[in-house]
Predict the 3D structure of the following.
Amino acid sequence: MTARIHPLDYKIDFNTGALRVAVLNGCWVEFRLKLHKHLARYLDGSWRLSEIQVSYRDGKIYVYLTFSKEVQLRESRALMGVDLNFNNVTFTIIDLNGDLVSMGVIPFRGLSRALHFKKLAEKL
């Protein structure tokens, strides 16, 4: 079970590790988080905390924090087309004049393996 929670429906204090989530009738539920050290790089002010996901699995509650950041777009120098097929990924890169820069095929067995395992599971 997973719930996505809008930024207006929760409050988080990174100093104490407290997460408060709004529930029905103006009530709040408070969680104590175990914060990882690598999280500090997202708290410098350049990243913005957006929605969170709260999941319940195996008797534990997991909270996933999602951050977003404004980026400056650069002027395009090329265009890339990607085609995901059943057995491969095909890509083509052309410059803005329409000249071919690169083209290639990357073998991909993920979908065929997934289908194979699905068939095996159905036979059981």
Notes: The longest helix spans residues 110-123. The mean pLDDT is 89.
